[in-house]
Design a protein that fits this description.
The protein is α+β, with helices and mostly antiparallel strands and 598 residues long. The longest helix has 33 residues. It is elongated and about 90 Å long.
Length: 598
């Protein structure tokens, strides 16, 4: 008798990219999305993130906002965690969430802020903590009688829906919104809409999935389930936008501190609830930890039996990271090292979190584990493959073409392109003077001809201040802003005179590359009318999985993970239409999961 060698189907469903998330009476749904900073004063440079083929009118915030509104409201999630919000314009940037029945907590610190939205017909705010690049919120479920889908608004006319969009139509809210916004000292919008303001959706909504898979879990079985006092289930949400770059120890500490804050808040809330219940029954106060009994009759540690979701932009793609180790095993030992930073000590002694093992819902849905690092092409945005979870960051592959071999300077080909731009700027000033003596100095023929074997240039060639300002206007569209402006000012010094040599020009762009601004350099080359010798051959996008959704396995059951892209969108990216673009407003893809309470 033959046996099949086919791998068993994953226990966690892959949910369609273009469908609303399921409605779960005994659980919740969570979306996490790094939205890419809105184009306000803080994010004026967002137009640089786009490839040249994307029309200018698709790079502006009103168009991006309409795409985001259409996408987020179509998911109809219970909880939406966003990263890279701007405090200055937050209230108007996300007014559509309030119109749709969501309240929120906005982080009180940092330039790029995280915010956690929750559907007021399903959840209420119980606590909040604002940690280092981590926002921790305690949310409590409301009785099922008040649980209804979010509102539906009039049909959208702009922009067109993304390609392959098969999801339920979501109507656009009115533009007549109070433009007043809160200050940084008022992070939470506590005046969210009530269930009465959002009537149940049409009968078609009943076709939405209400249960996926098996599961014996109930909201009346222990810690976090507060049925004895008549309160709903307590859930802790840890919304992360961790530090980037070579700082694995800080990323681990940020998540550890967030989990510790979640545990302390859970202990406090459950203790207060237990005391209130005891007072109502005329009993003595107890140390209500809300923990249910485990094996051998031992009570769970106070607060650790509360469901927890950890999600967001973890800003690392170096394989099995310290954050993954902390979440999946509960402890990071002193000997642990990340693959991408083998020489960096994470901690001098064991660090533990108290909630037990967490699962990565995308690993459980797609199989596989953490990749060794960034990749090119393949596995883009959601098709099931043997390579594990799909990437969430899909941008043009530029760094091999721009960086020198040591990774610190400008490549020979980029030097040729920058030389061409520099001499064009000098020529436009009618001034090809040397810095020392102001004598005419035409550009070297080899450099002007774009010979990649002669990256050099005339070190004495000089771009006067008026040429520098013309350059800055071309790339930044205004004077007085941008890291290029600050670097040029530092070199030229105060006063009306001064200028830049070609070596100065190279050094400014080398600094941009070290800061990871490959997209900015690509934009500047296009704006200056030059390109690398031989161009940039298309071999596929740069791919990375920065965005994750983890859940506490003891208290939540994973039901489904949403595929980040539909098939048509994957084909568009594979053909060179990287993120962001005319149909997606960010360089990151959203991730989402559906969970049932155990």
């Amino acid at each position: 008798m033959s046996t099949s060698s086919a791998a068993p189907a994953p226990a966690v469903a892959i949910l369609p990219a273009k469908a609303p998330l399921p409605l779960l009476d005994d659980g919740l749904t969570v979306v996490s999305f790094n939205v890419l900073l809105p184009n306000g004063n803080d994010g004026w440079w967002m137009y640089k993130s786009y490839q040249p083929h994307v029309p200018e009118e698709h790079r502006v915030w009103p168009f991006r906002k309409a795409l985001m509104r259409e996408y987020l409201l179509s998911k109809d999630a219970d909880i939406v965690c966003v990263q890279e919000a701007s405090a200055e314009t937050f209230e108007t940037d996300f007014d559509f969430m309030k119109d749709a029945g969501y309240d929120h907590v906005l982080h009180t610190k940092f330039r790029f802020r995280s915010a956690t939205f929750f559907k007021t017909s399903r959840l209420e705010l119980a606590s909040e903590k604002h940690k280092d690049r981590v926002l921790v919120t305690g949310l409590r479920t409301l009785p099922p009688a008040t649980s209804v889908p979010s509102s539906q608004a009039p049909p959208s006319q702009s922009p067109p829906p993304p390609p392959g969009n098969e999801r339920t139509e979501v109507q656009e809210p009115s533009e007549d919104v109070d433009p007043s916004s809160k200050t940084d000292a008022q992070p939470s919008n506590r005046g969210g809409s009530t269930a009465a303001e959002h009537p149940p959706a049409a009968a078609a909504e009943s076709s939405r999935i209400r249960h996926l898979g098996g599961g014996e879990g109930s909201a009346d079985d222990g810690g976090g389930a507060s049925s004895r006092s008549g309160k709903g289930r307590l859930v802790m949400v840890v919304n992360c936008h961790l530090t980037g770059g070579p700082a694995p120890e800080r990323r681990m500490r940020q998540v550890l501190d967030g989990l510790d804050a979640a545990r302390k808040d859970a202990v406090k809330l459950l203790s207060e609830e237990a005391e209130a219940a005891a007072a109502g029954l005329g009993k003595k106060k107890g140390g209500g930890g809300g923990g249910k009994k485990g094996g051998g009759g031992a009570a769970a540690a106070p607060g650790t039996s509360v469901p927890v979701v950890v999600c967001g932009d973890l800003n690392s793609n170096s394989g099995h990271t310290a954050v993954c180790e902390l979440l999946s095993t509960g402890v990071v030992g002193a000997s642990f090292r990340e693959g991408g930073y083998p020489e960096t000590a994470i901690t001098s002694k064991d660090k533990r979190q108290g909630f037990g093992p967490f699962g990565d819902i995308y690993e459980e849905a797609y199989g596989g584990g953490d990749p060794a690092g960034p990749g090119v092409g393949g596995g883009m945005g959601g098709e099931p493959t043997s390579n594990g979870p799909p990437p969430t960051f899909l941008v043009p592959l530029l760094h091999p073409h721009f960086l020198s071999e040591d990774g610190e300077g400008v490549s020979a080909r980029l030097q040729v392109a920058l030389s061409e731009a520099f001499y064009s700027l000098v020529g436009a000033c009618g001034n090809t003077a040397r810095a020392e003596d102001n004598d005419p100095s035409p550009p070297p023929p080899a450099a002007a001809a774009g010979d990649p074997t002669t990256p050099g240039a005339e070190p004495e060639a000089f771009l006067p201040r008026e040429g520098v300002e013309a350059w800055l206007m071309k790339i930044n569209r205004s004077l007085g802003r941008g890291s290029e402006f600050r670097a040029a000012e530092a070199i030229m010094g105060p006063g009306p005179g001064g200028g830049l040599t070609l070596e100065d020009f190279f050094s400014i762009y080398a600094s941009e590359l070290r800061g990871g601004k490959f997209w900015g350099v690509a934009h500047d080359l296009h704006a200056l009318g030059v390109e690398l010798p031989g161009g940039v051959p298309w071999v596929g996008p740069y791919t990375a999985r920065f965005d994750r959704v983890f859940y506490s396995k003891a208290t939540l059951e994973a039901v489904g993970a949403m595929e980040p892209l539909c098939e048509e969108e994957r084909e568009l990216v594979a053909g060179g239409d990287c993120l962001p673009n005319s149909w997606h407003p960010s360089d990151h893809l959203a991730v989402a999961g559906a969970f049932r309470f155990r």
